[in-house]
Recover the amino acids of this structure.
């Protein structure tokens, strides 16, 4: 009875989360939804006498894999959200048809099958003295070859990831001398002024004031400035607001210059 | 009860598949793939219980291993593509065509 | 000693060795290839000498399991028919290697690009192995594998080393052959399934299929593949393209040996596996063959390109072979088998000499020549003898075979109870047409005043003499004394026809005895 | 009297009769393979080989003479050619040995003559090798004991003839003539080949012995068919209507070739074939024999008419050759008596025609290779030996009483008269025309005014050329009388071809004989008026319709061209077009169709991974559905 309740609750949760995963615009929400699904499944594993898998699910999936996803999301841009306009004609419609059809077919198949009562893995667990030893015995005896191959696969994957992520240096590493030269050529050899210096409120998004009381645009982090402009959190002081806007504009320009080669579609 | 688990698994699988088809953000597509793998794992675990032996659980375990490897490589690819093309949309990587 | 496996293995090993030679060792590659091919020739001679024509039908039998679950064997053996064709391949390959000495060097008069020499000779050796394998295979599946594998080296030889339109020709050749090959594959699998013996071994499948309809369908599957390979009219159009674009040496092997697999297959598989269907389709096949004979000859007359012309003459000759096979008399079938060998030699030397001409002049167009006889008499003489062999002049080997095919077909009334004499009569007009196409070509190339473009043409050099001499010696020798070959061929043909339940090798009943029996 | 049985033979000279063939063949091989090294002595080797062959023939002949009549057909086995079908062997009997003697004898003389004639030609060695090849092939033709061997020799002489006509390949006319000769001959060979097929099918053998033994038992229709097919072959080789057109062009070859091949020996092969198969396939009164005689008469008239209009001395002689072989054919269609005269005429013709041709060669040799008789005239004094020998040949061919041609030709005419007066009188008419054109030739060449080209310096030929002429002319005088009178030839040939019931009596004074003589005299007189006494224009006048008709070879070439060559070319072009556009068009069309369809289908490959994934999902769904359905069924 307890299992039934757990199942139904988690089923509803996981299906809703899965739907959320598919339909939410922001990638971060998607990641969170996926986390929810995974956790629900972990519980369902536990319910089905697979405590080891439940733990692995939480540690590996929800812990490691999800973190990896989030890291990459950060790199690519956390806030970037998909446009919901479909570009391939008919893709969404046919995807729905195929998806629903497939689900119905599978469900029908499962429904038609005459399935008796589950045998339960308790017996199997007990023979080896618990779920983990039982699995271990299987892994290191019958499936030891697959296990070794899996380990090779993991190492290969790690190496592959490193190779892929590695950026080939196309020009010689700048020496200290080069760096110094570049600094002086840039016209502003000193360190950038920190934000909030002499400002009335000591916040990271407030531009610093120079000794003559004027506002230094250089002191504002451009990314933060853009967020401020986008979210409309500009300070009342027009001088400060102007400086933030300028920093934000520079950021836009910078982004555009990087994204320049990309075709606009 | 097994039937329920299996139907749930099928549902999740189908939802994941639809996600793969309709989302364009490569990372989200990846997440949907993970969802499908998880759905499969659920089925495996269910079958393990149904048949009363641990092979199903073991396969699920292996699936997780492979999934981890896959995610690592896949995300590295996404990062590489993003670096050169400044986009994580799967539709932008469409050079391999007629 | 597994002679036949050795025969296949030696050229393969040689090919690998040639391919592994360091870059730039062109001369060495040629020499190694030549030596390997000569070793194969020596082995083949040993096999031929030890073969006893009156003994068991299949000799040198080797059977090893290959894919046990499907009953596929590495099954090799030769009877007289296969043996002479293997000998043909073994003789032609060293000659072709010698003749192709500069094919890949890029030194011809038409300035072909320099290409990888060792690859070319390596491919030649691979091709040799495949050719020997296809004739020696007694497992139908193995036969099919060799049948298709032969295409690969030939595809590259045409596609990489051929003339201007080489890629068109190579693709056409490959697609045509593959199409036929797939039909055959279907038939092979169906044969396996329907026979239900869980084996692909040919001797065990003879006479297994008895249902007439099944026989007909399977026959067609095999026959179309072989008709494309041979090629019979109207499946012939790939041959002129392929032969004209291929380097002369490859063209020799293509027309001289590869295509023989088609006619060989008709005799070995179509007839023996599906005797009733073969008899049912005989009129159709004979019509195709006769049309091919006359049509090929007429089209050959109208060609402007030497190699294409020779290719069309071959289409005409393949008509003769197919006619001989399907007339199903002992004489015609033995003649057809002999024809396969003789045609290999005569067309071989014709292609090679044409190749020498083209190498010197840089053009295959007949109109670009004239008066070669005056400047290069030996070359022209070799060309003439080759041509005369092509028109089946008595005293040259092809006459014997053509004569046997025609007389066998003509006499089929008395022997097999069906009158195909009219086919023989129409086919005999090919004899006249042959004279026209060969002599007209010879006249335009070698006769008349010496054209400016051929004025400085060099006569045959030592290497080229060694290419031409053995073939011409064989052509003349077999023309006067074909008995050794026929002694090998006849028992095998008799057995084949016995399996088709046609009467043994015998002369038509003399008129007197017929009368005597009637009274 | 029927032909006698063939007896297996071994030992003696006859046992090695194959040497006759092998020696010249060896000579040809040595000369061809030896290359320039043999240039210096090549011609001598050629002569020696030919003489050696002649010697063997003479010895075999002597050995045969030593046997009684019914023992004179000897067969020797050589080797199995096609097991179960053809055993190669030689049949040495009076007929074949007569031919062998003629071939090697006249052949040797012509070999010797050629030493002189070809002395300035750089290709002399090659020439001799071809001559030797010819002698070998011709001997195989007549000596073989089966039809296949005959066929091999048959085409072998065709090859030699091809090589020799086209000896000066650099002349386009020679190359074309050689090609034409071979191809026209092949048309004849087609008939011969099918004849052989039919013989094999009917009798189960191709050897003369077994075939002739049972020939009478076959159906009449089959026999007639075989006869007509063999005749077609004979027509090709012997330049009989309708396959005569190659012979005139064949004069492009060096003159000794014309003498040896196209007058004395090869062209008589058709007569040999008919006579050899005569008893079996051309019995007197049969349809086949009738056709033979008709063809013979038609050709003898056609050849004679062509001969009257030719200004080219060699072509004139070629026309005459056609005509004379027409006589032989006529004789060959008339049964045993006819055979005797046909073979007799064949032998005497071999001598006097070789004599005439070699004489013509000697004239050409003297006149810078000029062949136009209109540019000759008055050569009698300058070329005395040539003149005398040529004149003897002339008298022999027109049938001047008591010379060789008189006996044999008259014999044929009389025998024909016996069978059918129409044929006989036509043959008489032909003899009259012969008198005209041969006289014309002699008068234009040796009498009248000099009409030479300016640079001509006529001179008598060297002894190596004149001695053969003298020997041949002696034969031209006496041979006919020797052969015919006293039934020498008839008795000799009887074992081989059968003999007449009673001995042939030669009557010197008969109506046809006198009529012939009168007609010949009229012809000669007419020629004297027109070409001896009167001035001969150097440029040929236009001439009447009839002259043009004769000059253009009775429009034979025109007919061939319009009936065969033009439609043939048209057919060839059509076939090539059909092959490229039709057959290959279908193939390429299918290829293009598939290519186009794929071109459209490949648009499905959009490059969007998501649409591929969609199709995968659809596929999975379909598979799942299918499994469900199948499971339910």
């Amino acid at each position: 009875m307890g299992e039934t309740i757990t199942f139904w609750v988690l089923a509803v949760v996981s299906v809703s989360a899965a739907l959320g995963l598919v339909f939410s615009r922001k990638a971060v929400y998607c990641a969170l939804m996926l986390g929810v699904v995974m956790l629900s499944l972990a519980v369902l594993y536990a319910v089905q006498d697979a405590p080891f898998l439940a733990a692995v699910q939480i540690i590996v999936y929800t812990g490691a894999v999800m973190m990896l996803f989030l890291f990459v999301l950060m790199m690519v841009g956390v806030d970037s959200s998909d446009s919901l306009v479909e570009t391939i004609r008919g893709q969404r419609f046919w995807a729905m048809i195929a998806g629903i059809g497939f689900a119905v077919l599978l469900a029908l198949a499962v429904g038609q099958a005459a399935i008796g009562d589950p045998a339960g893995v308790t017996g199997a667990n007990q023979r080896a003295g618990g779920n983990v030893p039982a699995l271990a015995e299987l892994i290191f005896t019958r499936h030891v070859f697959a296990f070794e191959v899996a380990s090779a696969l993991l190492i290969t994957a790690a190496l592959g990831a490193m190779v892929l992520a590695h950026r080939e240096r196309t020009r010689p590493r700048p020496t200290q001398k080069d760096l110094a030269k570049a600094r002086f050529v840039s016209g502003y050899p000193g360190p950038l002024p920190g934000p909030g210096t002499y400002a009335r409120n000591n916040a990271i998004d407030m531009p610093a004031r120079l000794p003559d009381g004027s506002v230094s645009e250089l002191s504002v982090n451009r990314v933060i400035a853009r967020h401020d402009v986008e979210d409309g959190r500009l300070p009342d002081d027009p001088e400060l607001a102007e400086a933030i806007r300028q920093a934000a504009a520079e950021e836009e320009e910078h982004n555009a210059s990087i994204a320049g080669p990309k075709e606009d579609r | 009860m097994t039937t329920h688990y299996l139907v749930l698994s099928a549902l999740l699988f189908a939802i994941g598949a639809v996600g793969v088809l309709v989302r364009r953000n490569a990372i989200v597509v990846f997440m949907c793939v993970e969802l499908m793998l998880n759905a499969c794992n659920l089925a495996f675990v269910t079958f393990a219980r149904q048949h009363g032996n641990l092979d199903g659980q073991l396969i699920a375990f292996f699936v997780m291993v492979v999934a981890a490897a896959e995610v690592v490589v896949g995300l590295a690819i996404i990062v590489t593509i993003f670096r050169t093309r400044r986009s994580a949309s799967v539709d932008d990587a469409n050079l391999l065509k007629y | 000693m597994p002679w036949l496996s050795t025969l296949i293995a030696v050229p393969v090993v040689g090919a690998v060795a040639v391919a592994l030679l360091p870059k730039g060792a062109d001369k060495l590659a040629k020499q190694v290839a030549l030596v390997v091919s000569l070793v194969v020739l020596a082995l083949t001679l040993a096999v031929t000498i030890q073969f006893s024509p009156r003994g068991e039908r299949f000799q040198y039998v080797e059977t090893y399991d290959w894919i046990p679950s499907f009953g596929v064997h590495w099954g090799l053996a030769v009877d007289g028919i296969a043996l002479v064709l293997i000998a043909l391949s073994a003789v032609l390959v060293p000659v072709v290697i010698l003749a192709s000495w500069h094919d890949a060097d890029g030194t011809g008069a038409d300035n072909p690009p320099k290409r990888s020499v060792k690859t070319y000779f390596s491919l030649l050796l691979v091709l040799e192995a495949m050719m020997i394998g296809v004739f020696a295979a007694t497992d139908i599946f193995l036969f099919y594998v060799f049948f298709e594998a032969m295409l690969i080296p030939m595809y590259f030889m045409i596609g990489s080393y051929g003339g201007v339109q080489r890629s068109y020709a190579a693709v056409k050749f490959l697609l045509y052959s593959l199409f036929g090959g797939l039909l055959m594959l279907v038939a092979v699998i169906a044969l396996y399934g329907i026979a239900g013996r869980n084996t692909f071994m040919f001797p065990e499948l003879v006479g297994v299929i008895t249902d007439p309809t099944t026989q007909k369908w399977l026959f067609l599957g095999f026959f179309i593949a072989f008709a494309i390979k041979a090629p019979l009219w109207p499946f012939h159009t790939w041959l002129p393209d392929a032969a004209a674009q291929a380097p002369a040496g490859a063209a020799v092997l293509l027309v001289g040996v590869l295509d023989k697999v088609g006619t060989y297959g008709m005799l070995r598989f179509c007839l023996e596996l599906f005797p009733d269907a073969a008899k049912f389709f005989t009129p159709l096949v004979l019509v195709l063959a006769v049309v091919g004979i006359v049509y090929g000859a007429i089209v050959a007359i109208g060609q402007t390109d030497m190699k294409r012309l020779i290719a069309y003459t071959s289409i005409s000759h393949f008509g003769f072979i197919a006619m001989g096979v399907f007339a199903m008399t002992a004489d015609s079938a033995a003649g057809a088998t002999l024809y396969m060998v003789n045609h290999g030699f005569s067309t071989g030397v014709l292609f090679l000499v044409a190749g020498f001409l083209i190498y010197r002049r840089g053009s295959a167009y007949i109109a670009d020549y004239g008066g070669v006889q005056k400047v290069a008499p030996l070359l022209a003489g070799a060309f003439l003898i080759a041509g005369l062999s092509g028109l089946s002049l008595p005293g040259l080997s092809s006459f014997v075979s053509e004569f046997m095919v025609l007389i066998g077909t003509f006499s089929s009334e008395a022997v097999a109870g069906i009158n195909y004499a009219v086919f023989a009569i129409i086919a005999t007009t090919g004899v006249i047409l042959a004279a026209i196409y060969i002599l007209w070509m010879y006249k335009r190339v070698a006769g008349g005043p010496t054209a400016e473009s051929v004025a400085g043409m060099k006569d045959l050099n030592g290497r080229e003499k060694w290419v031409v001499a053995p073939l011409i010696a064989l052509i003349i020798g077999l023309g006067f004394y074909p008995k050794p070959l026929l002694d090998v061929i006849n028992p095998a043909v008799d057995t084949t026809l016995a399996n088709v339940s046609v009467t043994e090798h015998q002369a038509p009943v003399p008129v007197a005895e017929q009368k005597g029996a009637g009274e | 009297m029927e032909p006698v049985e063939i007896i297996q033979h071994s030992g003696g000279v006859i046992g090695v009769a194959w040497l006759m063939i092998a020696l010249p063949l060896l000579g040809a091989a040595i000369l061809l393979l030896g290359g320039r090294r043999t240039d210096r002595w090549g011609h001598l080797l050629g002569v020696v080989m030919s003489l050696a062959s002649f010697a063997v023939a003479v010895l075999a002949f002597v050995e045969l003479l030593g046997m009684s009549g019914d023992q004179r057909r000897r067969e020797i086995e050589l080797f199995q050619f096609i097991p179960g079908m053809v055993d190669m062997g030689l049949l040495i009997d009076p007929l074949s040995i007569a031919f062998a003697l003629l071939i090697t004898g006249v052949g040797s003389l012509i070999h010797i003559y050629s030493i002189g004639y070809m002395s300035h030609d750089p290709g002399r060695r090659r020439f001799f090798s071809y001559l030797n090849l010819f002698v070998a092939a011709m001997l195989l033709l007549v000596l073989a004991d089966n039809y296949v061997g005959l066929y091999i020799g048959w085409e072998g002489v065709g090859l030699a003839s091809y090589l020799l006509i086209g000896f000066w390949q650099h002349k386009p006319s020679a190359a074309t003539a050689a090609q034409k000769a071979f191809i026209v001959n092949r048309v004849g060979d087609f008939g011969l080949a099918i004849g052989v097929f039919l013989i094999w099918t009917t009798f189960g053998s191709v050897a003369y012995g077994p075939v002739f033994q049972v020939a009478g038992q076959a159906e009449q229709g089959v026999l007639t068919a075989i006869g007509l097919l063999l005749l077609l072959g004979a027509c090709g080789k012997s330049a009989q209507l309708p396959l005569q057109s190659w012979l005139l062009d064949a004069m492009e070859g060096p003159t000794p070739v014309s003498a040896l091949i196209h007058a004395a020996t090869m062209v008589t092969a058709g007569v040999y074939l008919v006579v050899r198969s005569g008893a079996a396939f051309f019995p007197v009164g049969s349809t086949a024999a009738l056709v033979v005689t008709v063809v013979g008469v038609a050709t003898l008239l056609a050849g004679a008419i062509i001969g009257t209009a030719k200004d080219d001395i060699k072509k004139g002689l070629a026309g005459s050759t056609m005509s004379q072989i027409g006589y032989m054919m006529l004789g060959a269609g008339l049964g045993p008596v006819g055979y005797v005269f046909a073979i007799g005429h064949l032998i005497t013709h071999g001598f006097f025609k070789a004599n005439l041709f070699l004489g013509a060669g000697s004239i050409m040799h003297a006149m810078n290779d000029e062949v136009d008789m209109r540019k000759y005239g008055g050569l009698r004094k300058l070329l005395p030996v040539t003149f005398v020998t040529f004149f003897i040949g002339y008298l022999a061919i027109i049938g001047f009483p008591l010379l060789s041609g008189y006996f044999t030709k008259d014999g044929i005419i009389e025998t024909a008269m016996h069978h059918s007066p129409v044929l006989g009188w036509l043959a008489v008419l032909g003899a009259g025309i012969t008198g005209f054109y041969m006289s014309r030739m002699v008068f234009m060449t040796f009498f009248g005014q000099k009409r030479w080209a300016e640079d001509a310096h006529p001179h008598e030929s060297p002894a190596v050329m004149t001695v053969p002429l003298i020997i041949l002319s002696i034969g031209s005088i006496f041979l006919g009388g020797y052969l015919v009178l006293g039934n020498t030839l008839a008795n000799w040939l009887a074992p081989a071809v059968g003999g007449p019931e009673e001995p042939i009596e030669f009557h010197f004074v008969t109506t046809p004989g006198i009529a012939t003589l009168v007609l010949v005299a009229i012809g000669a007189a007419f020629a004297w008026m027109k070409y001896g006494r009167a001035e001969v224009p150097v440029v040929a006048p236009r001439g009447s319709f009839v002259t043009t008709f004769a000059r253009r070879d009775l429009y034979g070439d025109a007919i061939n061209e319009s009936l065969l060559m033009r439609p043939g070319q048209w057919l060839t072009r059509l076939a090539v077009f059909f092959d490229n556009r039709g057959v290959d068009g279908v193939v390429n069309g299918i290829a293009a169709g598939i290519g186009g369809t794929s071109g459209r289908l490949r648009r499905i490959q959009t490059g969007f991974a998501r649409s591929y994934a969609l199709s995968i999902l659809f596929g999975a769904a379909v598979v799942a559905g299918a499994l469900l359905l199948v499971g339910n069924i």
User: Anything to note?
Assistant: Chain B has one domain: 2-90. Chain B has three helices and no strands. The mean pLDDT of chain B is 88.
